[in-house]
Input
Amino acid sequence: MSEHPHKNCRELLGSLSSYIDGDLSPELCEELEKHLAGCTDCQVVLNTTKRTIDLVHSPLEKPDLPDEVRERLFKRLNLDSYLTPKPK
Amino acid sequence: MNNTMPNEISLEALIAGDRAEFARLVDEYSSPIYRLGLRMLGNPQDAEDVLQNTFINALTHIQNFEGRSSLATWLYRIASNEALMLIRKKRPEVNLDDVEGGDEAEDLKPAQFVDWSGLPENELLSGEGKNFLDEAIHTLPESLRLVFLLRDVEGLSIKETADALNLSETNVKTRLLRARVYLREKLSVYYGERLPVRSENE
Output
């Protein structure tokens, strides 16, 4: 496995999350983007981190509650009489 | 956009003991809370315990809800505590606060530079790929996983995550960064091996 070659890439990594969340000051953003423009490895780290977050957001990663679990929950809470067909 | 949200749960009705409204609250939040339990405990039985205990607790304490956070954040707080309590009970050896120490720069040093971000989602989340992702999330240390699940899977803001877990926002950001970097490394190894060969020379 190769080691990341650039020293100032560490700073990028420290701000990576905040940058992705749009939570970085304009000055730091600019600095970071300047670095990104010249550093392919950091571009890859940024792209693949964003993609990782996209994937876990996917509906495939968010299954609904199984019907029988919902039913037992309503019974446990004495809410049986409100156990109508699931909304939506 | 509509200003009125037809599905909004009425806190007044909940506090007044309106059972139908509580049933609506249960339907609104039971899926994400079950998922959280499943991801934290790793099996459906424990996830169901977390789910049931969360709403029993909510039902018991709704009168004390002060509205300093949203109802959603309040429920996630109860659910997170239930999940952590169950983990402590079942696996007392797990260190749930293990995040402050360590050399951050060392932890965050990436080693994978294959760009798999262009692969289509149906390929990335095909049966096997999805299993790998789920497994990778499950190998995150608990203290990072909970932050990651609330923020990146369920979409809470940094502040809401911090409120739900009683952590500082800085602490949430640190844990989130570590979790994201950790998962990216894992996924890069896996998906990198599945990239078409031509991409290597592009």
Q: What stands out?
A: DSSP finds ten helices and no strands in chain B. The CA atoms of residues 73 and 115 of chain B lie 36 Å apart.
